[in-house]
């Protein structure tokens, strides 16, 4: 089970599309307008974001935006056997919003269904046979947006996308993980839901506490090769940044998505030229990085990381496989959704050794503290 695409509900699909193109270097690859929504699709590498805005007050998108600020409404997964997946989900008590539909297309067959997930989030499940459209019932320019099933082999390329300009492959390659925030007391229940219904398995767990606030987190991962990763957070203090998200979002939801790149230093340098707003990392972080025992990053690398405000972490048993991360400011008006930008660096330059795995606790804490500083600027973190 892998992430197929992510659907955002936004106030203005075209303006949001332009932000992705201008700020993150994505490509505009499809658009469509129907009775209740305007759709824009943006792409980078294997990442597809579907941006939807309402075309009338009766649209489900308008209803969503009355309850929540703009953000992620649906995380779609590509599955090998949709009938078996839906049967398992139904047996475990999941609510099926859209039963399995089948669409025979020119080069393949697309099957899909939709589950109600945690809180207001939904999960569309897609089974792709051959080469199919990105979205079901595609029309207009979306007809030309074609995706191949995982492992598909033929004389056709693995991804056939009609683009105006294919000379720029984009800065990002894939979605590394999607992070879900849930209310206090819901972490255990949401973890159990994803384990029972969709077959995710618990991985790392974190309990982060500073002098001001705290959170608990459980990383979930699907056991299939290259399976989707879903960390789930809950607040562990009343003034936690997770609680601020829940308050502003009016409930649980996706807090951020991690976009993977092969060269984070170069990518961030390019994004800064685009004036993308990123979270600040204090100089003290890099002083501590230089003093960290067990493994020393080359000084020239630390200087590059400090210049671009990038975090670095590694596991004690694989310290040469370095995890590099940084984070954007919230991308909408409200302090809710943001992007993580990540590189899992191998333990040598050959690229054949193991990549950095998991989620570095040092980086996790540094992110938590960075968001705390933004809370202080907003006056929403009461430190007494």
Describe the structure.
By secondary structure, the protein is of the alpha+beta class. The chain folds into two domains: 2-161, Roll (2,3-Dihydroxybiphenyl 1,2-Dioxygenase, domain 1), CATH 3.10.180; 174-378, 2,3-Dihydroxybiphenyl 1,2-Dioxygenase, domain 1. Helices cover 26% and strands 36% of the residues. It is built from nine helices and 18 strands. The chain has helices at 13-24, 60-67, 82-91, 187-198, 241-249, 264-273, 283-291, 299-308, 361-378; strands at 2-9, 27-33, 37-44, 47-54, 71-78, 95-104, 108-116, 122-133, 145-148, 159-161, 174-181, 201-209, 214-221, 229-235, 253-260, 311-315, 318-327, 338-344. Strands 1, 2, 3, 4, 5, 6, 7, 8, 9 and 10 form a ten-stranded mixed sheet that branches. Strands 12-13-14-11-15-18-17-16 form an eight-stranded mixed sheet, with helices on both faces. A hairpin with a 4-residue loop joins strand 12 (201-209) and strand 13 (214-221). Helix 7 packs antiparallel against helix 8 (299-308). The protein is globular. The N and C termini lie far apart (44 Å). Residues 152-167 and 350-356 have low confidence and may be disordered.
């Amino acid at each position: 089970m892998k992430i197929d695409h992510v659907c955002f509900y936004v106030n203005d699909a075209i303006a949001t599309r332009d932000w992705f193109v201008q700020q993150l270097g994505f490509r505009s690859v499809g658009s469509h307008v129907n009775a209740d929504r305007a759709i824009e699709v943006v792409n980078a590498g294997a990442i597809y974001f579907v941006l939807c805005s309402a075309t009338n007050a009766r649209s489900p998108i308008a209803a969503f935006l009355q309850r929540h600020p703009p953000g992620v409404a649906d995380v779609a997964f590509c599955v090998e056997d949709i009938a078996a997946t839906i049967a398992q989900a139904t047996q475990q008590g999941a609510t099926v919003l859209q039963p399995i539909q089948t669409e025979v297309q020119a080069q393949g067959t697309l099957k899909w269904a939709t589950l109600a997930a945690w809180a207001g989030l939904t999960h569309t499940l897609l089974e792709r046979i051959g080469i199919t459209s990105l979205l079901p019932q595609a029309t207009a320019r979306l007809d030309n947006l074609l995706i191949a099933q995982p492992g598909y082999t033929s004389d056709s390329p693995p991804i056939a996308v009609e683009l105006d300009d294919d000379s720029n492959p984009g800065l990002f390659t894939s979605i590394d993980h999607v992070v879900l925030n849930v209310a206090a007391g819901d972490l255990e229940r949401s973890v159990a839901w994803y384990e029972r219904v969709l077959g995710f398995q618990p991985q790392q767990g974190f309990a982060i506490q500073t002098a001001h606030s705290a959170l608990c987190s459980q990383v979930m991962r699907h056991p299939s090769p290259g399976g989707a990763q879903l960390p789930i957070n809950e607040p562990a203090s009343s003034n936690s940044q997770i609680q601020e998200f829940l308050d502003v979002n009016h409930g649980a939801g996706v807090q951020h998505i991690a976009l993977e790149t092969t060269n984070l230093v170069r990518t961030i340098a390019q994004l800064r030229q685009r004036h993308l707003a990123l979270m600040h990392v204090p100089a003290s972080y890099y002083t501590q990085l230089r003093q960290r025992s067990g493994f020393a990053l080359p000084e020239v690398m630390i200087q590059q990381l400090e210049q671009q405000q990038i975090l670095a972490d590694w596991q004690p048993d694989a310290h040469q496989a370095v995890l590099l991360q940084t984070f954007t400011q919230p991308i909408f008006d409200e302090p809710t959704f943001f992007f993580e930008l990540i590189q899992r660096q191998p333990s040598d330059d050959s690229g054949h050794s193991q990549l950095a795995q998991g989620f570095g606790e040092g980086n996790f804490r540094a992110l938590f503290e960075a968001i705390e500083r933004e809370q202080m600027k907003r006056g929403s973190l009461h430190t007494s």
